[in-house]
């Protein structure tokens, strides 16, 4: 009888050679890189690029409330079109919202209205980035268990958490370097003209690139709603499709 108890290093190897998990992990990683790049630089962007420092708490509050409101709405969309399609739509919405920041003039009262409007729309992308990768992870774990007999949820979830922490670290490191290159000096109230331009590029170009990479990985993610449902039914019936070479490999690594 096959045992799913395997060593740590064997488990890591199996986790990252399982294609659905690798693609979902990369989708989550690059999606979060895009979101954290915006979150980490949004305060300075509003202050220096939009010249709306007094409105910053309200813009952020609207963004957070919109993210919360979008959560149940995305649940409805997910039931209609599936998790993968809903995540794709959410990332595209977020990317288009960021792209608009490059071309919209935020001067005057009209600019305040646009800032709040884009926060509401951008909240849809943030909510999708929070919700769907984590809701898709149990599907990947079930698929791995069905095909390889591996049930190491702690490894699957641990690397997802690592991806979010890694994104924050990368955002902080890259942003700090770009601030210096753009001439930003936190000790001065007046900043050179390069700072608003740098911040505008910082909350648009890197996040868009990261999200495009995430969308590319998501496009190749192989699990559909139909395959997930088949896997669920097969697990309920106790069926296992474990290749012989996988069985032998995992039994040998049981001693790791």
TrEMBL record:
Keywords, comma-separated and alphabetical: Membrane, Transmembrane, Transmembrane helix
GO biological process: carbohydrate transport
Entries under PANTHER family matching the protein: MAJOR FACILITATOR SUPERFAMILY (MFS) PROFILE DOMAIN-CONTAINING PROTEIN, MAJOR FACILITATOR SUPERFAMILY DOMAIN-CONTAINING PROTEIN
InterPro entries assigned to the protein according to its UniProt record, in alphabetical order: MFS_2, MFS_trans_sf
Family: Belongs to the major facilitator superfamily.
Organism superkingdom: Eukaryota
Gene Ontology cellular-component terms listed: plasma membrane
GO molecular function annotations of the record: symporter activity
The protein's name in its UniProt record: Sodium-dependent lysophosphatidylcholine symporter 1-A
Segments passing through the bilayer: 21-43, 55-73, 85-104, 110-134, 155-179, 199-223
